[in-house]
Amino acid sequence: STSRAHRMPRPPQPCAWRALALVVLVLLGPHQEHSSVADAARIRATGTDAASRAPQDPAKSDGPWKRDAKRLKVVYDALSDMLANINKEEQQEAQNIATFQKWCGSEAGDFQKVLDQALLVRDEKSVTKKELEATIAKLENDLGLIQKQEQETSDELSQEQQIDNEDDKKYEQDMTLNTQAASQVTEAVKIVGKVHEQGGFLQNGVLTQVQLNEPGESSYVLGIMKQLRKTLGDTRTKLMDSQKIQEDDSGALVHTKRQQLQSLAQEKSGKNEQLTQARVDLEEVKRDLNRSLKKIPRVEKRIDGTKAHCDAKEKAWKARKADRKAEKDSIAEALGFLTQSVMETMSPNVSAIAQPSSPSWQSFGSGDTSSAEPPAFVQASSKSARSSRAGSLAYLSALADRQSGNEVKKVVKDMAVVLQTQQKDEDALVQQCKASLDGKNDDVAQNKDDIARLVAGINFKDSEILSLSAEVTELKGALADLQSNLENATAMRKEEKKMHESQSKDRKLSVKVVKQSMQVLKKFYSTKDVTAFARVLQQAPSSALQLGEDLVVVDVSEAPGGNSDSNVTSPTAPPATWSGSSRKTLAGAGIMGLLAKLRDDMSAEQRTADIEEQEAVTAFEKLQKDSRSQFDDSMAEITERMKRKATLTVKLNSDKEDKAGEEEELGTIEGQLKALHKKCDEVVRTIKDRTKARDFEISQLRDVLDIISGSQLAVRTGA
Could you tell me the pLDDT band of residue 166, with boundaries at 50, 70 and 90? Predict the structure, then answer.
């Protein structure tokens, strides 16, 4: 600022020392001065023309003439120096105000750029905010669709597994029926084959001819049975092939659905990460937008404040120019008045001593004092003109005392006011310097504390981000291991199920065959034993044995030991064939016991296998459920850590920006503090000495006023 309140204090002006010299000169000869003034007063009172009086002796008037000339010269020089200093100060202030106006333009331009940038950021962030909100809405919609697809895929997978179970049960039933039919047909083929070979059925030991014995009949039935057995075998093969195709198709479908579920889970995880990042970006954009919205009114206020300050400074400059012009005009008018009055009232002897080459007081008082010289009458010192100058200066002293005394007093008072104003300005400057230095030192300390706090926060956030990254990597590795273990367990469960189903089928078929064998044996051994020949002979006195077409009648009485007087000749005894029953009843019972034991053992094994299978299914389902829960928990932990990492990253970048801003602000404040020290240290250090010197100058000026008013002593300064 170029105002007087903010200018560096100027050293005491030469006019003050001129005033002190005036005091000293005035004190040199008060009696002669007052006598000259009294004489001038008497002359004016009696109306006697000064030119009619005889000039005094130059030898007697040499002392008063010199004193009067010196006094007038001091007053003239003081006014001239004051005018010169005013002009010099005006030039300096003109340069300062030009610099200030340039600063105003630069400051306004810079802040306008900042405002434009803030407005641009506001617009960009507003658009980005809308885009991120739309992105978040789309991601949330996509996640809803993915969740719906996951549910549908899970339902389809459950339905497919249920259909597979039903198909497996139907396949087992079909295979059981096929096996039973094949076994029965095989047994029938064996029976028909024996009939075909023997030519009939053996009933009660007698071969009986039936229609099947006719040529072609037995072969026809046997062929049908064999064809039926072949058809059942082909049907079994087709059932097995169809079951294998169905299992392959079902396995491929289940595998596809599981891959689809896995793909949906991965896509869902990616969408969640994108949603989290979008939400974090949205918060950052909102923060930047709010910062811009807060910054815009501050910058606008700063621009308005700068404009108001510059306008006020311009207005103050115009007022200072007008005031300074009035001051210069007053001084010039005073000088011109003194010059004109002296030139009009001086005697011809006084006017004759003026040098033609010397500038007039009027021109000197107009402002240009660079080459001005004192008036000619104070330079003249020839002895030939002393007598006339003595009388003229006496009259000039009286005239100056009467006509310009008030102007001189006004000048002295103005000088005192200037010194007092300078003192007030300097006191205000000192107070401002102290307050500014204290404030800037506090700002520096606060900035350093803020920077230290930000550095600590940055280091902490860096450490947290590294820790979170390591945890996310570890969790992802655990998820990969979990997925691999689950896939291995799924493959093992599939093999175990396949093995259990195969063993169960074989075991059930074996149990069925054992039961059928037991039923056949039990049915056989439960029939009447017709092969017990001894019991037949005991039960029937005679029996007929059909041996081909011959019929042999055996009479018991004709047997050895019978009636020997009979006319009937006793036949020859038949050779020995067998005795007892042909049935292996005991062996059959043992075999049936073994079959029953085998049936019970296989049934127990099947029950144990079923229990183990159910336990394995339950354990696998629990493993799947636990794995899914662990997967979801791990994904939630990963998402939470990534969210925290993203949030910390945003805060870290914000802290780094704030730290850079604080460091930049600290550099600015330190530069301002350095400039304040350069500006204020000397002022604060020398304020007491300058105040003391200025107070003494003011006291001297007051003594001058007292002496001009008629006092003979300088009571304040003791001069």
Answer: confident
Domain map (residue ranges) of the chain: 107-194+218-310
CA angle 190, 196, 199 (to 5 degrees): 135
pLDDT of residue 582: 59
- Alpha-helix residue ranges (DSSP H) falling in 47-57: none
Q: Tell me the C-alpha distance between 670 and 648, whole Å.
A: 32
* pLDDT attached to residue 611: 93
- What DSSP assignment string belongs to 56-109? PPHHHHHHHHHHHHHHHHHHHHHHHHHHHHHHHHHHHHHHHHHHHHHHHHHHHH
Element holding 287 (H helix, E strand): helix 217-345
Tell me the C-alpha distance between 141 and 321, whole Å: 73
To which H or E segment does residue 273 belong?
Answer: helix 217-345
Task: Please enumerate, as own/partner, the contacts of 527-536 that have beta carbons within 8 Å and a separation of 24 or more.
Answer: 529/581, 529/583, 529/585, 530/204, 530/205, 531/205, 531/581, 531/582, 531/583, 532/580, 532/581, 533/577, 533/578, 533/579, 533/580, 534/579, 534/580
Hunting for tokens 């919609």 — which residue is that? 141
Task: Give the up-direction half-sphere exposure of residue 558: CA atoms within 13 A in the CB hemisphere.
Answer: 12
Distance of alpha carbon 240 from alpha carbon 231, whole angstroms:
14
- The answer, yes or no, to whether residue 86 has pLDDT greater than 60, is yes
pLDDT in tens, 445-494: 988 998 999 999 999 989 999 999 999 999 989 989 988 998 999 999 99
* Residue recorded with tokens 């560096």: 8
- Quote the tokens at residue 337: 């008045």
- Whether the Cβ atoms of residue 185 and residue 232 lie closer than 8 Å to each other: yes
Rg (Cα) of the chain, in Å, rounded? 69
Q: What distances in angstroms separate CA 564 from CA 78, 363, 404, 560, 567, one per listed residue?
A: 207, 210, 215, 9, 8
Is the pLDDT confidence value at 22 over 60?
Answer: no
- The percentage of the chain sitting over the pLDDT mark of 70, rounded to a whole number, equals 65
Residues 6+ apart with CB under 8 A from 299: 111, 114, 115, 118
User: Per 3-state DSSP, what percentage of the chain is helix, strand, and coil (rounded to 5)?
Assistant: 85, 0, 15
pLDDT confidence tier of residue 52, bands split at 50, 70 and 90? very low
Question: Which letter does DSSP use for residue 547 in this model?
Answer: E
* pLDDT tens digits, one per residue of 505-534: 888 888 887 788 778 778 877 877 666 544
Name residues whose C-beta falls within 8 Å of residue 698's C-beta, 6 or more positions apart in sequence.
416, 419, 420
Token pair in block for residue 594:
């073994």
Which DSSP category does 203 fall into?
A: E
Q: State the Cα–Cα distance between residues 666 and 448, nearest whole angstrom.
A: 8
Mean pLDDT of the chain: 71
Q: Which helix (H) or strand (E) holds 694?
A: helix 585-708
- 99-103, 133-137, 327-331, 621-625, range with the lowest pLDDT: 327-331
**pLDDT at 339 (0 to 100):** 56
Neighbours of 563 (CB within 10 A): 11
* 331: its two tokens: 């001084």
What is the helix (H) or strand (E) element at residue 206, kind and residue range?
Answer: strand 206-208
Instruction: State pLDDT tens for residues 174-189.
Output: 888 888 888 877 877 7
> Please, what is the end-to-end C-alpha distance for the chain in angstroms?
40
Element (H, E) at 208: strand 206-208
As a dihedral over the C-alpha atoms of residue 145, residue 151, residue 157, residue 163, rounded to 10 degrees, the angle is -120
Flag the least confident range among 325-329, 331-335, 396-400, 624-628.
Answer: 396-400
- CA–CA distance, 642 with 652 (Å, rounded to integer): 15
User: Whose structure tokens read 């029938």?
Assistant: 188
